[in-house]
């Protein structure tokens, strides 16, 4: 069974904008899957539907075998989302932020778990600093740790490296690859072909709300 399965997914926003028009694809378990496309193609819309933040107009989506309509709680428990926008309480520390979300996800209380997550994204020195005092790069890394708090089998990163410098980009990649080596299925969106080529086993290309390619990275690069 696929880690993520999307069938005939469509989204028409209240403005009348058809952001997705019959998109179908599967993400294989254990893989790194890249969703590539220019700005406005519909990438975030797909992720926001998976995250439960945007209501689809039609079609189906399931995560780890759980249909997002039929089994929304199980679907959500199976995925960690790293959104584009930074959104956590500026007056909580990274440690408190992780503990808060662990509580929300019903993760058994274990302070070591939060510290391990912070260590993995190299934020252990900032565990007790207010989030508002962290640099942009540190906040991004905290977002990644937050997405992994309930140890989901799938993690989705929405444009993880947009507007990020080379050093931070390298750090994020290393972490993503390490997670994948430990068995986590990874989906990332990007508008950089190079980034997708280097990281992903398979790349789907979306444009104007339609999937226009979906191939193993090697084949796709061979075509160019
Ligand atoms: P991408 O992530 O590939 O840049 P998006 O999924 O954000 O693309 O957007 C796809 C299209 O839907 C764009 O034309 C965008 O302007 C539009 N869109 C996104 N969110 C909304 C919204 N909440 N209301 C209306 N249109 C939206
Ligand atoms: P670190 O936590 O590794 O010190 P920084 O926050 O100093 O990372 O970021 C490194 C570089 O990346 C800086 O030049 C910063 O402007 C840029 N950067 C980090 N996050 C963002 C972001 N969300 N948007 C735009 N630029 C960012």
TrEMBL record:
One of its GO terms (molecular function) is ATP binding. This is ABC transporter ATP-binding protein. The lineage of its organism: Bacteria, Pseudomonadati, Pseudomonadota, Alphaproteobacteria, Sphingomonadales. The keyword Transport applies. The keyword Nucleotide-binding applies. Keywords: ATP-binding, Nodulation, Nucleotide-binding, Transport. Residues 4-224 form the ABC transporter domain. Belongs to the ABC transporter superfamily.
